[in-house]
Amino acid sequence: MKSKAGIVILQVFLLVSFSFAIAYFLDESSGEPRVVANEKKGLLDNVKVVYKTIVEAVLGGGLVSAEELVSTCVRDKQGALCQEYLAAECDSLCSGTCIPTSREETSECKLGTCYDSVEGTCQERSSAECSFDGDVWIDDPLGNDPLCQTGCCLYGYETTMKTERACQLIGENRGQKVEFNPNLDSISCWALARVREEAACVFPGGDKSDCRFVTEGECEQIGGDFRSGFLCSAEELNTDCEKQTTTSCVEGKDEVYWFDSCGNRENIYWNIRDKSWNDGKILSKDESCSLGNNLGNQDSCGNCNYLTGSRCGLNSGNENADFGEFVCKDLRCEDSDGDTRENGESWCAYQGAIGLDDSVSGGRSVDTPGSRHFRETCIDGEVQTEGCADYRNEICVESQDEGLSFAACRLNRWQQCIEYNTRSGSEGECEQNPDCFVKKINIADNFRFDVCAPKYPAGFNLRTNGEGAETICSLASQKCTVIWVKKVSGWKCVANCDCRKAGFAQQMNDMCMSLGDCGASVNYQGELGESYKVYESPGLSGGYLNKIEDYADYSNSPNDYASPGDLGDFYGTLGIPSGLGSAEDPDDATESLGTIGMVGGLGGVALMWAAGTTTGATFLAKVGLAQFTVAGKIPIGFGSGLSVSGTGATPIAAVESTISQGAIPTGAPNPGLNAAGGALAGAAIGFSVTSMLIQYTGIGKGLSKVSAYGLLAAGTVAGAMIGYGIIAGGGKIAAACAVPGACILAIAVIITVIIMKLMGVGKTKKRIVSFECQPWKAAYGGDDCDKCGSDGFPCSRYACQSLGQTCEFINEGTGQ
Fold it and tell me: Among 645, 654, 687, 760, which one has the highest count of C-beta atoms within 10 angstroms of its own C-beta?
C-alpha cells in the first residue's frame, strides 16, 4: 500500500509541476544501467484527466482548443469589425458581446461578397461589414453573381472593365452615352479603345475651316465632314490649326502626343517633327518612333506602352525631353533595398526577421514583439504599402514566377499550432501546417520532448498581458529533475545532468519565444526584454542574447518571406503524451543480476567473475569448477579432456568414461565431486548473500560495474571456499574456515559493505531545475516612443506599446 501511495503522490507532483506538460516520455535501451523516464501503466491517462482539470481551474472553461483561445468581437471599441482577440481580453476590448469561437465560425463575420448598389463595386467582405455600410451581401467570397460580373464599358473613345452598374455611373457622371459588353475580356476591351478610328472632322467656313479630331460617329453627330486618315493640321484641309505646337497626354491612352494650335491631338511625339507629322496624315503606333529598351529614347520619343512599363506623364525633373513637359514615365518602382520592381508587382516587407530559424538546434520562431507584416505593390511607378492585420493575425506570403514576385496577406493559423498539443495523433498535421513546426527540446536523456509551435507567433496586447498571454507562455514553464548519487569517490550526477548547463535555459527560451511575445526577446527596434526566470541552472549568456538582438534587423532573417502554403490540406489535431522526463532514482547496478545468481551449471555470472580473479581462479581450478583461457574467456563444463590452466591449477582426469550415452552412472559418488558440489553451492550462496548486502544497504547505486562485480566475485569465492571446507570436513560447520583465508575474505567483504554504507555510498539527492516563461514586457519609460513609424512603416498601437511601457498611441488611423 505504501508503494502504491508513493506512486500516486509522485504522479500528482509531476502533474502539478507540469500542469501544461506537452511532451512525451522517451526510453532508449542501451544495455547499460541508467535512469529511465516514468512509464508506469495508466499514467498517461491520468495526465490527460488532470491536465484538463487544471486548465479548467485556471481558465474557467474546458480544455483549451483553437476556438477557446480566441473569441470574436463583431465590433470593437475602436470601430473595427470582426476582430479576433484572446478570450481573456476580448470583453475589455469589444463594444458588444464576445463570441467564443474563431472568426471563420462566426456567422456575422463569414466572408462573402459585398455589392455596392450605388457604385456598382464588389468586394470580399464579411456580412457584418456589408450590413454596416448598407450594401448587399452575397454568400460567395468569389463574387460569382451577375451583379458582380464585369464587362467592357465603352464611353467615347475610352474603355474600362466595370460592372454594368459602374459603367452606367460613368455615363451619368460624364453625361455621355455608354456601351456595356459583358462578353469582352480585359485585353479585348483595352484593344477596342485603340482600334476606333479618329480623324479630322472639318467645318468649312470663311478663309480657314474649323476642325476637330474625333471619331466618325461623333463627327456625324456634330455635323462635320469626316476626313479619314488626316490630321486637322494637314495643309490640304485648309484649316486654321497649326501643327505641333505642344505635347500632352490623352486620357485612356499610353503615349505622349503632339497637339495642334486648336487643341487637337496629332501623332505620337517624335523629336524628328517631319517624320512625326507625316505630311498631315495619321501615323500608326507601329510606324512611329521606338522608345527603346529601358526607356533609352525617352527624351526623343513618346511611344509609351503601359504593358511594357511606361505611360505618358508630366516630367518630374528626373526625366529628359527634347520638347515639352511630358515624357514616357517609367512605371517601375524602386523598393527599399534599391531593387527595381515591375509595374503591378507585389512583395512582402517586414519589420525584422520572420519565421523559423532552423539553424538553431530544435528550431525557434523569430518574429519580434511589435513587428508587423506588410504587402507592398508597385502601381504606376509608386510603391503603395498595405499592412496585414496587426498582432501578426495575418502574415504576408510571397511567391515567385519568372523573376516576378506576387504577395498577399493571409490569416495566420497560429492558434491551430497551440491547439494541436492538447490532442493526440497530429504530429504529422503539425508538420504539414505551413504556419507550424515541431519544436524539439533535447536537453538530457530524460528531458526531451516535441511541441507544436507557431512559425509566426502571435503578438499580445503588451499593455495588459492578460490571462490568455500568460496561459500560452506558461506552456514553456517546465521543470527538470537532476539526480546525484554518492559514489566511493564522491557525489556524481547520474540523471538529467545537462539541465544544469547553459543549454537548458537557451533551449527553453527558444520554445518560450516561439509561442508568442514571451521570454527573452527584442522588440522590432532591437531593445531587449528578458521576461523569464531560471532556477538551479545558468541564465542566458551574452552571446545568446546578442543573437536574439540580431532578429530586429530583417537582413538577419533566416527567411526572405513567408511561404503561401496550402491551408486546405490539413485539419486535425496533434497530441503529445504528457510528462517531461522527471527522472526516477537510478536503477541499481546489481538488480539485473538478481535472477541470474542461481544459474545452474558452471556457466553462472558469479563464477565467471570469480574466475577472473587470481584467488578465485586458483581456488576454482583446484576444485575443478572452472577453466579459463589466456584470452580470459571461460568455456566451462563437464566433458572429455576438460583441463584448467592458471596459477595453481591441477589437470582434472577425464570423466567421459563414467558417462555412457548421456546416462549418469549409478555408482557411489566421487568424493572429489562431492567437495566440488559443496564449493558450487557455497559459491551460489556467497553470491546471493553479497548481492543482498549490496542491495539492502543501498550502496549498489553508488557502485560502478567493476566495483559491484568485484564485491560479488569476492563474496562468491569466499562462499565457495567455505562450502568446500564444510563438505571436505564431513559436513561440519566448524570446518567452514578450514580453507585458508575463507573466513577472512568473507569478513572483508562484509566490512567493505559496512564501510561503504557508513560513507553514504549509494545515497541520492535531487535538484529541481526550472524555467519560467513569462509574457514579454517592454522597457520601462518612453524614451523610444518617437521611433514608432521611423522605419518607413506606419505606426500602430501594437508597435507603439512595444517601445516602452509609457508609450501611448494617440492618433489612431494616421499611421504616425
Answer: 687
